[in-house]
Please model this.
Amino acid sequence: MTSFDWMDDDDAMMLELKAAVAEADAVPERLLRDAKAAFAWRTVDQELERLTLESDSLFDDLALVRGDEDTASRVLSFEGSGIGLEIEINDRVVVGQVFPMRAALITIVGAAGPSIETRTDDLGCFVVDRIPNGPLRVRCDTQESSFITDWLAT
Amino acid sequence: MMQTVGVGELVAAAARGDQSAWTALVERYLPLVYSIVRRFRLSDKDAEDVSQTVWLRLVEHLDAIREPKALPGWIATTTRHEILAVLGAKRRTDPMDPTGSWLLDLQGTFVDLDDELLRAEAASALRNGLAELEPEQRTLLLLLVEDPPVSYGEISRITGMPIGSIGPTRSRCLKKLRATSSVQAFLRPDGMQDRMDGGQR
Model:
């Protein structure tokens, strides 16, 4: 554990204080602005049921520390009540499917830009060619209900 | 003197929709996010994406935070997670590194992050303690830690304090800083333990 010599040593404390002040000053203005602005999303889609992340191939691989070649895609599965959503992200293209298979309206919600809407086919499949940069979340509207995932950095 | 507001109160107020409480949380913990992000040499754009995702996720999770002392740990863990997501997506499409060895490299970088978390919390406690001090005390300490350094002569001119009393006054200000509720809360053994438990190792 780190020791806190500066509690009894003025010079050590001044160094600690200098680092603390410099650290806060170093934060880029844009990060501060975006972090403050994130609060505006608090009430957006608040009423929708959350789709929870069940698996993420990126972190499954990490847990195994696999050394072999991996695929270029990241596959994420989400679940809500009576619904599943699987998406595969590869180089800004998203391919996905809704389970059980059914038609749905899919919205890729970008935090930094416009959202992209698309309809699935009858088997619940969809493709979005060019997802926005920055954090995004996926909204899924079926005939019965509406769902949304948490934010993802991609 | 500025009243210190505990992280629990800030979280509760933000969950009720108080933008100023949210801003206070951001100002308190964004340096922690940024200090972790910096270690990974992300591009500016990736650093922005990671940070923004962390704060968006926190907005989503405000209602679910039951133990406010665990918040710094949650923020640090989420930051690491999103850094991996961003770096992972990049490496996977990078033909130069098909071996997956980057995972090992990254895990090496994570080893001492619990120390990093504790250090970042100490820094946050010091900044909040600074905000609790009287304006004259705060001004003196800020002048003394400026980079590049400000000479005692210049400090004397700005503060109207004789050069000879700068040293003793500094010592008194530091004593006050150690006694602030922010620094004392950080040093309380139970607080420290809660924070480490909140690190979700």
Summary: The beta strands of chain A are 49-56, 74-80, 83-90, 93-99, 105-110, 116-119, 125-128, 136-141, 146-149. The first strand of chain A starts at residue 49 and ends at 56. Chain A touches chain B through 57 residues (CB under 8 Å).
